[in-house]
Amino acid sequence: MESMIINRLEKGKFVLIAEIGVNYYDIAEKEGITPLEAAKEMIRAANDAGIHAVKFQTYQAGKLAAKASPSYWDLAEEPTTSQYELFKKFDHFGYEEYRELKVYADSLGIEFLSTAFDFEAADYLDELMAVYKISSSDLSNLPFIKYQAQKNKPILLSVGASQLLEIEAAVDAIRMYSEQPIVLMHCVLEYPTPPEDANLLKIVSLTKQFPELYIGYSDHTKPTKNCDVIKTAYNLGALCVEKHFTLDKTLKGNDHYHAMDQEDAKRILKGIQELDLIRGKGDLVCLETEQTARKNARRSIVAKSAIAKGTAVTEEMLTFKRPGTGISPDRLSQLTGRIALEDIAEDTILMDWMFE
User: Fold this and answer.
1) Last residue of some domain: 279, 310, 332?
2) How much is the pLDDT for 254?
3) At what angle are helices 35-48 and 95-108 packed, to 10 degrees?
């Protein structure tokens, strides 16, 4: 099973992943359709926007959180104070539903994946995904990381709220069982993340610390018209970006309030395309478009005074002026001492054929 995500990363191409998560439940309620229909609608919308992959979240509330687990999100946006109670609202899909979503995504040509939050989900999602995604919340859950690594597939590993030693331990746990590509996803576990907390320079630090891995960014900031956060993350080295996705950013609760919609996604992709044009290839060469300026703005060796035929050239007879169509100043030592084959007027741009 090939992964569009990994294929693009191997070619140095930007990847945008729509984190649908469980937002389709709210879309279904709003539109009066089934959650499965809403999930398909969101996949179709993501694909129409040019997004490369869609990601869901696969969990059972009872396996994920104790009933006493407190909230860690903005209660003004999502008032549920218990993780268990929130997750219980959105845990009704199983293998059959995800298989249907996988088939539908394949029919459109967009990659399907889902974050597994328990061993059973990791098992039945295996045949449906080309890559695994591990949540920041499981970064220290080394037994679960090792279990997924044994599937021997590429892994996207979010590293929100982590210390370096924890990241290293998680990577080591994966490498015990798999040499498949790893993408470390910088992430801030603050929902939503204020721009001042985005800490995007961590992308640079991850790149230096883990040069053999791909680096990405899982974004929880609220979308802006100019997409500055994601464009900055890309410029700092995040080749893979994951962002929550919704069809209605005004919906209360869950992950709508910091999600991108279709128009945001289009702006992100257009912004990255424009950045790629600006960034260029980085080759240390003169561009074809610079050739005329290179020739006319550089200098040539010019006769400072008249040079009589048969005269041996000295530096005192020479100066340097535009354009650069004659003998280049960096060849001055090769010109001095040569004999003029003809009378050369003052201010003449000197050419090799004028000398022995």
Assistant:
1) 279
2) 76
3) 30
Cα–Cα nearest to 53, from 146, 132, 159 = 132
- For 322-343, the three-class secondary structure string (H helix, E strand, C coil) is CCCCCCCHHHHHHHCCCEECCC
| CA dist., res. 74 & res. 189, Å (int) | 11
- Looking at the structure, tell me whether residues 322 and 269 fall in a common domain: no
**For residues 322 and 328, what is the distance between their CA atoms, to the nearest angstrom?**
10
Neighbour-count burial of 264, counting CB atoms closer than 10 A to its CB (0-12 exposed, 13-18 middle, 19+ buried)? buried
Contact (Cβ atoms closer than 8 angstroms) between residue 140 and residue 160: no
Residue 338, pLDDT score = 98
Last residue of a domain, one of 246, 279, 312: 279
Query: What's the domain range around 303?
Result: 288-354
pLDDT at residue number 78:
84
Distance linking the first and last C-alpha atoms of the chain:
69
Q: Which structure tokens are listed for 281?
A: 């290839």
List, in order, residues 6 or more apart from 347 with CB less than 8 Å away.
302, 303, 321
Give, for 266, the enclosing helix (H) or strand (E): helix 262-279
CA distance 66 to 1: 36
Q: Are residues 181 and 161 in the same domain?
A: yes
Burial 76-97 (b: 16+ CB within 10 A, else e): ebbebebbbebbbebbebeeee
Report the pLDDT averaged over residues 28-52.
98
Give the separation between CA 23 and CA 31, rounded to whole angstroms.
Answer: 13
Q: Is the same domain home to 300 and 219?
A: no
Q: Are residues 292 and 153 part of one domain?
A: no
Residue with token string 């709508």: 256
Number of structural domains, the chain?
2
Locus of tokens 């290179």: 294
Q: Is the pLDDT of residue 230 over 80?
A: yes
